Every structure is written in C-alpha cells, then in structure tokens.
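Schema walkthrough. Field components (list of strings):
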Amino acid sequence: MAVYTHLGAEALGELICAFNVGDLVSAKGIAEGVSNSNWLIETTGYGGGKTGHYSENGGARFILTMFEGRTEIADLPFFLGLLDHLADKGCPVPRTIHDRDGASFRSLTGPDGEEKVVALIEFLPGVSVSLPTPAQAHAVGIALAQMHKAVEGYDQNRRNTLALPEWRDLLEACKPEELATIDPALGETVTRELAFLDANWPRHLPTGVVHADLFPDNVLMLGETVTGLIDFYFSCTDIIAYDVAVTHAAWCFDNAGRNFNPAISAALLKGYESVRPLSVEEREALPVLARGAAMRFLSTRAYDWINTPQDALVVRKDPLAFARRLAFYADPAHADVFA
Amino acid sequence: MAVYTHLGAEALGELICAFNVGDLVSAKGIAEGVSNSNWLIETTGYGGGKTGHYSENGGARFILTMFEGRTEIADLPFFLGLLDHLADKGCPVPRTIHDRDGASFRSLTGPDGEEKVVALIEFLPGVSVSLPTPAQAHAVGIALAQMHKAVEGYDQNRRNTLALPEWRDLLEACKPEELATIDPALGETVTRELAFLDANWPRHLPTGVVHADLFPDNVLMLGETVTGLIDFYFSCTDIIAYDVAVTHAAWCFDNAGRNFNPAISAALLKGYESVRPLSVEEREALPVLARGAAMRFLSTRAYDWINTPQDALVVRKDPLAFARRLAFYADPAHADVFA
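Field assembly_structure (string):
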C-alpha cells in the first residue's frame, strides 16, 4: 500500500506518449499492491487526441505499475504474456497495453537516475469485497476454474519460487526464539508440519499455470459478478488443485483465521467444480494442499514479521492468522471440509 | 500521502447509495493529501443505473475524502460551501456532491466503530506539474486572480489559523537546541524575522477569502490550461495579496528553495495582474508578505520536523527549503522581484 517512487507529471506524460493511448489526462498514485508502485492513469483514449480535449464521460483508464524490486524483471514476459493469453481466452483479467514498439514493458529513468521498469495495464471496474457472500464465493470458484482451463496452451512456464523448499528456507531463517516471540508453540508447529508436508506432498497431480495468491484483494467484483482477477505477480506453474487450496484458505475464514465459514467453502468448491470437476486424487489431496497453502503464507508472514522493522512503512501482516488456518486444516475433526 | 482508514467495498457501496450518483463501480485509495484519506471513486453515473451496467467509456468519477482529524469539522461548511460558490462562478474547482438530503458532508461508522466524516467531491482532470513553464505559471496567476474576484459575495468567513501569531507559537514551541539541530543559525533567523514581521505586517490591505496553500500539488493542469484548483482545507479570510505571496513562494523556486526562477515569477505576476491588478499598496507590501509566506511554511515544517518521529509514516518536509526562501525575500539585493 504505497507509492514508492515520485513520478512527476512531465515524466508520466512522456511515458504515456510511448503508447498509442492518447494524451495524459489524470494520474493518481494509488494505495494498491504491497511491493510495486501503481498509478491510476486516465488518457484521452486510444489512437490519439489532443491535450485538453477531454470528454465529461472520461477517457480510457489504465493502471501503470512500476516494479520496485520484489518482482523479477526476467519474469515479466511470463506474467504479462499470461494476462494477454487469459484475456484472449475471455477471462476477466487486465490486458497489458503494448507500447508503440510492441513491448509489454519498458524502462524509464526515475527521479534518482535509477532505471525503473514499468508496464501499462488495462483498468477493470469492480471493487474487492471484504465480507464475501456465498454467491460471490461461488462466482470466484467459477472464475478460478475458468482460468485453470484457459491457461491450457500458454507456452511459458515459471517455477513456483514460494513452494515447500522455500517455506522451509524462510522458516529456518527465523531463529526459534524469534518464532517464539510470535507464539511460544510456533516453532514446534512448523517443524512438525514441514515434516508432514515433506512426507505427504502429492507428486502426481495435474499441473498448470496457477494464480497462487487469489485473495479477495485480488478479485474485483460488481455485485455477484467477477469483473477482474488481478495481481498475477506470484503466478507460476504448480499443482492446479494447490491454487484451489490457496483460494480456499484466502476466502473461507475471517482475516484473523479464527472462524471458518462452511457456506463460503461449499459455494467456492461448488462454483469451481461446475466448470472444472476435481478428480478423486485432487479432492483427496486437498487437505494436504490446504495445509501447504496455510504454511506458504505463514512462512512469508513469519519471516516478514521478524525481519521488518516495527516502524517500517509497510504494515506487517499477522502470521498467526495462517497458523490458525493451518491448525484448522490439520485437525481431523475437519476432514469433512473437502469430502 | 496515505489512506489512513480501511473502508471495505460494502461500506463504500452503502455510502455511495446516500448520493444520487448511481452505483459504485470502482474505488481506489489514492496517495493524495497529507492529512485526510482519499479514494478515487467511479460510479455508474448520476441518476441511478443498475450494478453491473458499466460503460467502457467510464462512468462518473469522484474523490471521496475522509477527514482524519487535522481538518476541523466545524470548518467544513466554509470549505465545501466555498467550492460550490467558486464552481458556480466558473472557477475550475471541484463541486461538492450533496447527498440525497442535501448535505455536503455526512458521517459513517469506520471499521473501529469510530465516527468519521466524509465528503464526495467532483473529480477533475489534469495533473500537477513538477517543473512549471512560464506559460503554466502565467495560467496559474490568472486562475488565482479569478478566484480572488469570484469569492466576492461568498457569505462565510474563516479566520486564518496559521497566521503570524501561530507562526510565533509554533516556533516558540520548538526549543532553541532543537531548532539548532535543523540549522545552527535557524533560531536567530526566526527571532529576527518574527520581530520584523510583527513590526511591518501590513494592516490595511484588502482582505477576502484566499486559498493560502496554492502549491503546484494543488493545481491540476492539462498542458497550459488550469483544470483544477484543489485542496482548499487551509482557505480562510486574509489579506488577498498574501495569497499572491504564498503562491509566489510555492511556484518560483526549486523544491529545496536554492534557485529562484525569475521567468516563472514574472509570468505568475503578469498573469495575476491581467485579471486583478495589484494596487500600489499591495505591490509595495509584497516583499513583506512573501517573507511572511516563507515564515508560515518554515514554522509548520520546523514544528513537524521536530515533533514527528523520524520513523513515522509521514514524510517530513525540509524546513530549510523555506528558510532559504525567507533569506531570498529578505535580501535587499532582491528588492526588484516585486518592483
């Protein structure tokens, strides 16, 4: 939630000239995304137009993203190509706007003389819900399954760089006494769960390109319609059902992970399976995959919690919100959730 | 530069229903303003429409401002009424959107159960320039003078709560050794200049409603056209020529206050006088008023510098940028700037 780099109107105007989207009309730094700077840009519209010509109804809108270090530039062709592939297949994802030379991203010199990479992305309507209804969760399940079908034929791959080995690395980089400051039992929990996941992680399930971070923040909705799946900067090639598990962990609990919502869970899975039925193997693996999904966010949050100064500009997210989800999924009493 | 309060889509949607602006289509927290939270809101447009009906060309856009404490709620009728008055007179200021009951602001219960006051303001196109050209400064001078003429007939008043007595209060609240940490000579400068301003502040110049904070950040432009004067939350009744001095101090130097730009200065004053010629008394008072304008921002910046923890979320602004402007205006060698 920040704009890390100041970009003056002159630099923005010059940048927009590199695209066939008309002239710059408005630019507002937006508090979206945790690791990149974003601006909501308005222009006079595709194909030109003169500065000063401005329709009351508004011009074309875009999101300008400046990659601030956490995203590997080498991965941008994968991420941005995926948006174009999915949009072509009719998924509600924002297209990348290519510049006049056909490039999906370009660099510019920032105010400190530093080279920064930026991409211009289609703006999509919709808002992110905070308290989803079952009907909304059903629609999200459908959109996720449609995405999983639509990635077929996408010819790029990206290894999941936040998978089981990395969860272990992140958690082993935290000293036991540091983990104990978060919760006295946390060290023991992660040791036990990492061993369980190592022994039980499914090896032969179908893989494909997955979003891997489909929290409510990354879904735009109008009423019960999904208008946008956004923020694909964790997308990668992994077990498809793992994406179902991540989405389940992201949507079916209150933020703190204290309360599981069975109606949301049932609606999400029902929506998903109305488009892409899970195989018996996938369904049987979901409890393990969900423990993995909880561990994925527990590991990054615990690492960030310990390694982010308390007074930093970034708001630290509570690791225990996912330790609680992990405990929920690991509890045999909840075996029926994915039954 | 922040969004201080999280407002979920549900709360935002409910709020928008109180206005006759259609349904919520999009809401992005924007990094604008230092003391309030702001969202760029898009709706299906005036007079209704159903959720989900969304034109590719965009709906109506608004800025939703949540007042976070620095703005006195008792002053809102003055600020918001001023916007409507100026818009009626043809000035490029954003109108306040009144709710279905005719109110220009309303309260809502924030996520912490706290009552928050919000106003819905018209969105205006344009971007804030970082490196103004003389032609842009000329246009800003014209817009400022037009505003000074258009406020005639506005029937509300507000005392300037950041005038000479408050500059003294703020600076006296800083200990000499704290001022010395900013610059060893600052304490002496401030004592000398406050005495000078006390003795020389003009008493009989025309007064009216002034913006009092017309920095480039608070002006929206498209090319050389002023499309918006915004952020009136320091506006008040004061000496009209003082507003010219504030705008001069804000536009005619680089940020750090090291370099004065005579071409910008000449263009700004020429633009202003093409609409509202300064009287001989006003022109003669400008050097003193400009020292006051520099002191106004020096006093708040020095106070904030000393009283804001270095690790706070707010970026502290350098007081010396205005100590340098003060030294410039106080230097007899620069007597010709306002001649």
